[in-house]
Amino acid sequence: MNPLDLSVEELDDILKLANDIEAHPQEYAHKCDGLKLATLFYEPSTRTRLSFEAAMLNLGGKVLGFSSADSSSASKGESISDTIRVVSSYADICAIRHPKEGAPLVASTKSGIPIINAGDGGHQHPTQTLTDLLTIHSLKGRLDNLTIGLCGDLKFGRTVHSLIHAMIRYPNVRFILISPEELRIPSYMREDVLDRNHIDYREEVRLEDAMPKLDILYMTRVQKERFFNEEDYVRMKDFYILDKKKMELAPKDMLVLHPLPRVNEISVEVDDDPRAVYFQQARYGVYVRMALILTLLKWKDM
User: Fold this and answer.
1) Which of 35, 49, 79, 291 could form a disulfide bond with 61, CB atoms 3.0-4.6 angstroms apart?
2) Regarding predicted confidence, which is higher, 293 or 226?
3) Is 158 known to be catalytic?
4) pLDDT single digits (tens) 85-113
5) 136 or 121, greater pLDDT
6) Mean pLDDT calculated for residue range 286-294
């Protein structure tokens, strides 16, 4: 299941459940006793995979799976459809990350258990978006009336695309899209999502020009794995670096988010700024994945 297929009301229910889990973790410590989560990660991951595992373990469940395609039967040529048919016999719910766009959707059509999209190529990263929504709502107190700056790799960054899809559902959300020309947001996102839904946005090249106007700054890394050649990656990777000097231009209550991993796009000197909440964001990722697992397993009936 793609969480972005949920209605605003269903999203809000998941966020409320995540907040309740954060406040009362012991009440949820045995909700998944005897149940198993399969993590099928065809791409490398640290935070997403471990946060899914931590989420299931925190709920009292168990985890099985693999952390790269090389350690799975995909290396022998097995299709994802066949893999998920087998895994459906071993687990109660499954999280899939795959380099091909749409692979989790294909898996869901052949699966006998709920499927969670944990990222598919340059397409979407919906559970990261739930993490982002929970972080913003918990720390800002709202998901409407916000100006959000999206900075860095807006062309290939699936976290950016997913966050835009989610935030356009809320009133009076504005975007400032900060990127070099080569990494601007894809035309289909601009035309089919932003323009079609009459969303207020503008594009900037300089991060400094956007900083004073932001409620949220969402930084992203330039992803080496999305480039076709090393030369383009080396040329673009240092284009934006957030440091103390740039932070001085921002409002006192602006929040800095980042899906991590960080390379060098946020200087470590920013980490001590109270507006830098990316490590809190990673913690919120566990709570929201716990809430999503419970929701898909219909926890109120458990």
Assistant:
1) 35
2) 293
3) no
4) 999 999 999 999 988 888 888 999 999 99
5) 136
6) 97
pLDDT at 261: 86
| Active-site option among 36, 98, 123, 125 | 125
- Give the active site residue among 97, 123, 137, 161: 97
Active site residue 85: no
257-269 per-position pLDDT tens digit: 999 888 889 999 9
Which of the residues 39, 48, 83, 135 is marked catalytic? 48
Q: One of 76, 198, 206, 300 is an active-site residue; which one?
A: 76
Torsion of CA 40, 41, 45, 51, to 10 degrees: -10
Q: Is 47 a catalytic residue?
A: yes
Give pLDDT tens digits for 223-253: 666 555 677 666 666 678 899 999 999 999 9
125 carries an active-site annotation = yes
